Amino acid sequence: MKKNNLDIFMQEYIPQINDCLDEMLSSLNAETKLKDAMQYSVDAGGKRLRPLMTLAIIKANNHKITKEFIRAAACLELIHTYSLIHDDLPEMDNDDLRRGKPTNHKVFGQAMAVLAGDALLTFAFQKLSELNLSNNIKVKLITALSTAAGPEGMVNGQVGDIQGEKEKYNLDQLVKVHQGKTGALIRYACYAGAVLGEATEKQQTSLVEFGEMFGLAFQIYDDILDVIGSEEKLGKKVHKDAVEMKNTYPGILGLDGAIQHLQRLISSMKEQLAILVDEHFNIELLSEFLNYFDLEKEIK
Amino acid sequence: MKKNNLDIFMQEYIPQINDCLDEMLSSLNAETKLKDAMQYSVDAGGKRLRPLMTLAIIKANNHKITKEFIRAAACLELIHTYSLIHDDLPEMDNDDLRRGKPTNHKVFGQAMAVLAGDALLTFAFQKLSELNLSNNIKVKLITALSTAAGPEGMVNGQVGDIQGEKEKYNLDQLVKVHQGKTGALIRYACYAGAVLGEATEKQQTSLVEFGEMFGLAFQIYDDILDVIGSEEKLGKKVHKDAVEMKNTYPGILGLDGAIQHLQRLISSMKEQLAILVDEHFNIELLSEFLNYFDLEKEIK
Questions:
Q1: CB A291 within 8 A of CB A221
Q2: Interface check A152 vs B, CB under 8 A
Q3: Structure confidence at residue B230 (pLDDT)
Q4: Rounded mean pLDDT of chain B?
Q5: What pLDDT was estimated at residue B296?
Q6: Using alpha carbons only, what angle is made at residue A281 by residues A275 and A282, rounded to the nearest 5 degrees?
Q7: Which end is more exposed in chain B, N or C (fewer Cβ atoms within 10 Å of the end residue's Cβ)?
Q8: Across-strand partners of A278?
Q9: Which residues face A94 on adjacent strands?
Q10: Do A183 and A46 contact (CB within 8 A), yes or no?
């Protein structure tokens, strides 16, 4: 089978993102136990989707992907990793398994998992502020990332998610939760790509809009897989949402309704890509990210 | 009794720091429950020691304390508050009472306490990055604050503290833990004052050194009060360290040894103040911070 551009891109940049993360963590002057706990979850085999999106946008705008850009992108993965560690905690989602491996608190204990999360979150801002980029760009990225990750973004979504355990949400409420929980960081990934790749204002608007929808689609896709996926393929428990009476898209829209909603989002993303084409943006790579939402490959 | 300069200074600036924190939190676009949990701990009546130190240093260097400087100082209080919320969690120090009031997780539940802490930590960097100061100063402060608060500072100290529950430390090990746990943020408070107050390089070195020792003294003083203080005066349980077999200065040095160690640190801080006098720095306010370590007032 012929490899597409994104596969080639991933093959080139995932190892570089991983090396960069390893370098950041090994340079850390901290207790071995803390470093181990941080490293464990950073190494737990994520898809590196968020940093890849940032880098793909930089490349699409004909900019060279420098070491500093990879570092900037890797900072986002630190934040993403912290959020997974805290989400998995017993007092939160209480997950024992993540990507087929025991979760952080299962290996290092609950106190260390809280601290490893705190450490990764803070470390992301440390490394971002130390980048060899202009202060102007660094401040832009720090403002955007903290807004995306904090009480006006991801943390707020997580609060909504937890409150939803006691309350039935309608579609608008659920969308609002996921705009924070999943959408904000993916939106930021696209924003960071736009800033580092020197996108025009118009390009940036479309890229951020694309990221926003991608984040929502990502969550809907995840919810759908929880209904129709297999534990073996996903490396985590399925049918968990139903057991826990979680607010999900299939729960509100039905399975078919959720699949249709996902397809509508994909169409809207393609519209943004069409706008980007008009703005002389090379959408080839970015459009291949939409292959992620291929339900067939996960269930067959 | 005649009021000293620091009392007058506190009377003027504590309300301004509190107003600034309230303004930051009320402007927040987030779930009410999250805002309530954040506000609860921010309002829990701290001494605002850290932001006051920053502001005192700015004033001592003959700079006007602007609204932006108060905002910058308040960001440090956000970080300090997050650290208290996470420290009090059942999996950490498991404290039910803080400053005489129920701890965050006792009021809002454990999940919300984790999230309120995460939110305050991230929000501090958001507000710092949004200050109306030069990008150069903002990046300096963000680098220093993230280094002080993260895996090379406070979080690392907290890890050491937790590991110490299973291990007896010697004095050097204990000092290293507290340089992170308590020292790093107070050191940063002095650094921020030096940066915002445009201290010379020599002044900055002495101020940071002063902050480092103040942080250690702060912890020793706290350990001593746990042995000889009264629950009523302190608003928290005493003799907790002994019950939990914690590594403390009185535990390693004996009570008299710990008091002597505290006095030696106070002498060293006075030496730094003497250097600052030679550097044309007005030490009046800063030297009054040393009155904090008056054991008499807490036990009589």
A1: no
A2: yes
A3: 67
A4: 92
A5: 73
A6: 115
A7: N
A8: none
A9: none
A10: no
Instruction: Answer whether B80's CB lies under 8 Å from B220's CB.
Output: no
Question: Looking at this protein, which amino acid is placed at residue A43?
Answer: D
In whole angstroms, what is the distance from residue A228 CA to residue A255 CA?
9
pLDDT score recorded for residue A247: 84
Q: What is the pLDDT of residue B10?
A: 96
Note the pLDDT tens digit of each residue in B186-235: 999 999 999 999 999 999 999 999 999 999 999 999 899 888 876 666 66
Find the length of chain A: 300
Amino acid at A7: D
Which two three-digit tokens encode residue B33? 């429950």
Q: Tell me the chain A residues in contact with residue B33 when contact means C-beta distances shorter than 8 Å.
A: 159, 163
Q: How far, in whole angstroms, is CA B202 from its chain's centroid?
A: 24
User: In the 8-state DSSP scheme, what is residue A165?
Assistant: G
Whole-number pLDDT of residue B244: 63
Token code pair at residue B270: 């006075």
Residue from the list B91, B115, B117 with its beta carbon closest to the beta carbon of A111: B91
pLDDT in tens, A131-147: 999 999 999 999 999 99
**For residue B138, which of B82, B75, B201 has the smallest C-alpha distance?**
B75
| Strands in B82-151 per DSSP E | 97-98, 101-102
CB-based contact (8 Å) between B175 and chain A?
Answer: no
Pair A269, A290: CB distance under 8 Å: yes
Residue A246 region by backbone torsions, left for phi larger than 0, else alpha for psi between -120 and 50, else beta: beta
DSSP codes of every residue in A242-270: HHTT---HHHHHHHHHHHHHHHHHHHHHH
String of DSSP letters for A50-80? HHHHHHHHHHHTT----HHHHHHHHHHHHHH
Percent of chain B with pLDDT over 90: 79
* Identity of the residue in B89, B123, B136 whose CB atom sits nearest the CB atom of A114: B89
Q: Are B133 and B140 in contact (CB under 8 A)?
A: no
Task: Give me the residue label for tokens 């939990």.
Answer: B244
For tokens 């291929």, name the residue. Answer: A294
Q: Is pLDDT larger for residue B299 or for residue A275?
A: A275
Do residues A207 and A199 make contact, with C-beta atoms less than 8 angstroms apart?
Answer: yes
Query: Could you tell me which of A21, A55, A60 has the C-alpha nearest to residue A277?
Result: A60
Task: Name the token pair of B250.
Answer: 């009185």
Give CA–CA dist B117/B151, Å, rounded: 16
Asked if residue A233 has pLDDT above 70, the reply is: no
Residue A3 pLDDT > 70: no
Q: Which of B41, B91, B143 is the mutation pick for testing A, counting most A CBs within 10 A?
A: B91
Token pair for residue A2? 């012929």
At A36, list the tokens: 């181990």
Show residues of chain A in contact with B91, CB under 8 Å. 109-111, 114
- CA angle at residue A143 from A40 to A200, to 5 degrees? 110
pLDDT in tens, B139-158: 999 999 999 999 999 999 99
What pLDDT band is residue A166 in, cutting at 50, 70 and 90? confident
Q: How far apart are CA A238 and CA B46, in angstroms?
A: 45
Burial classification of residue B63, based on how many CB atoms lie within 10 Å of its CB (0-12 exposed, 13-18 middle, 19 or more buried): middle
Residue A235 — pLDDT band, cuts 50, 70, 90? low
Packing angle of the helix pair A135-149, A184-196 (nearest 10 deg): 170
